[in-house]
Amino acid sequence: MVVAVILAVAGALVATVGGIMLLVAAFQVSVGWGLLVLLVPFGNLVFIIKFWPRTRQATFLQLAGVGLGLLALLAFVLTVGGQGGPARGTYQPPVQSGGSGPEWPPRPVEQPMPAPATPSPLPEIPIGILGPTPEPTALRMVPTSQADEHLGEFVELVMRDGSVSRVVLHEVTGEHFRVAERYGGGGITYKVPRAKVKSIRLLK
């Protein structure tokens, strides 16, 4: 491809130089011949035939440029034809002979299905912290302001949305209650925002 481009550029330059020389020679003869070569189709051919000794060198240069152009065209055709085969680095399947050899096209390999992600268990605390769930015999309301006096006791948190949770109080702050709740074979601890708790009922 590079050779074809070089030949094409060289041919164009040589043909252009020959054309300029022919035009200069025509204007040297007369302005009329110059305009004839410049503007009239095939006027240059008439000028070449009539003034051959004067136009011989310019004509040979133009013919040489045309020849280089034809060589460039031939090189381009050969280059494109040479690239028609299999590209370098492409895989060519083996030819099967008599039923032997690997199967073509190859069968797609079945990928195993990914195992579903197992949810991480919640952190557990020893069941001894909670103790057995007592059967309440009475319910006694306790102000939330006195909740810190009942740390470690089993209570019911009555939430503002109407839900109830039976938990063990572990910590009381101005922002939340940290409680423990039975879960599976153990228990979990978590924080309950104080603003969500409507009241506390102490289980006796």
Topology, please?
Layout: H1 2-29, H2 31-39, H3 43-50, H4 52-82, H5 127-130, E1 139-142, E2 154-159, E3 164-172, E4 176-183, E5 186-193, E6 197-203
Structure notes:
- The structure is a single chain.
- This protein is α+β, with helices and mostly antiparallel strands.
- The chain folds into two domains: 2-82, no CATH class; 127-203, SH3 type barrels.
- Helix content is 39%, strand content 21%.
- The chain is built from five helices and six strands.
- A six-stranded antiparallel beta sheet has the order 1-6-2-3-4-5.
- A hairpin with a 2-residue loop joins strand 4 (176-183) and strand 5 (186-193).
- Helix 1 packs antiparallel against helix 2 (31-39).
- The relative contact order is 0.11.
Number of helices: 5
- Please indicate the percent range of residues in DSSP E strands (runs of 2 or more): 15-25%
Q: Between the first and last Cα atoms, what is the distance in angstroms?
A: 98 Å
Q: Low-confidence spans: pLDDT under 50, at least 5 residues?
A: 124-130
Order of helices and strands: HHHHHEEEEEE
Widest beta sheet: strand line-up: 1-6-2-3-4-5
- How would you characterize the largest beta sheet? 6 strands, antiparallel
Shape: rod-shaped
- Domain tally: 2
Rounded radius of gyration (Å): 50 Å
Query: What integer is the average pLDDT?
Result: 77
Counting DSSP E segments of at least 2 residues, the number of strands comes to: 6
Label the structural class: alpha+beta
Helicity, as a percent range: 25-40%
